[in-house]
Design brief:
- With 103 residues, the chain is mostly beta strands.
- It has no helices and 4 strands.
- The protein is elongated, with a radius of gyration of 17 Å.
């Protein structure tokens, strides 16, 4: 369900980006949740939230991109006193598993 998102031309590269969160518990029971771009705002969450983040002199464009799950999913993990909690192990972008965005 791709929503139409208006982006500045400089950020068009994120339009079809898919972010995948890899979550597991104790090294197994792995789940992968895929997210896609659902919204964009040129306003930043900074000390000046009502000013555009674009600096005309530098050509830098910033804002807030919202990624949401592509489909609603639920995941079952074990819960007991001695079980470790589910852990975010990896974040991959566009199917590229060669980069570690967590460390």
């Amino acid at each position: 369900f791709m929503k139409h998102v208006t982006l500045p031309e400089e950020l068009s590269w994120i339009k079809h980006m898919v972010i995948e969160l890899w979550i597991d518990q104790e090294g197994f029971r792995a789940v992968r949740s895929c997210m896609q771009l659902m919204g964009y705002s040129p306003r930043t969450r900074s000390l000046h939230p009502y000013e555009d983040a674009e600096d005309a002199g530098s050509g830098v464009t910033a804002g807030v991109a919202e990624f949401m799950p592509m489909k609603r999913e639920t995941f079952a993990f074990h819960y007991a006193t001695l079980d470790s909690p589910p852990t975010l192990r990896m974040v991959s972008v566009a199917g590229d598993e060669s980069r570690d965005y967590i460390s």
